[in-house]
Amino acid sequence: MNRFIPRLAVGLGVVSLAPATHAQQTPNRDSAQSCPMHKEHMSSLAHHSNVEKHSDQAMGFPHDKTTHHFRILPGGGAIEITANDASDKTDMSAIRGHLSQTADLFSKGEFSAPMFIHSGIPPGVTTMKLLKEKIRYRYEEVSSGGRVSIESDDRLAVAAIHDFIRFQISEHQTGDPLTLPGAK
Q: What is the pTM of this model?
């Protein structure tokens, strides 16, 4: 008699019935290595770990005690960082100092920190450097941290800012929307 075991396809909400086999009941030690995407998964984990390590070095505060958000806005975007603990004055001060300096450096076309953090030139940076006179960077304090607003009236500059912000969202795995609010 065939026995069937319900198997759940995680994330898809699909349940399938498959014949019970010894392989399904016994964990396979080599299953991770036999995954066709194993090298890519491991490379992605190592890359993200490197991004976090370089971020901590470049910014002067630990990523695990802070929350980063990257916002895509109609006229550009925003970088926002806050301390997870509102009473953490040390990290709050470091965040504010870092973001204030970031706004100043970006306005001069200086993007060495993101290039160090990401081990390369992030998308949008080359165009943002070329169009630096058409882009406005404004630092402001927010509750528990700070924000850098990046704005332009130039369509090419806005597209470059969006590319830069999308890259940051993906690299830092913030979960922020990759499109403009309300866009499909």
A: 0.71
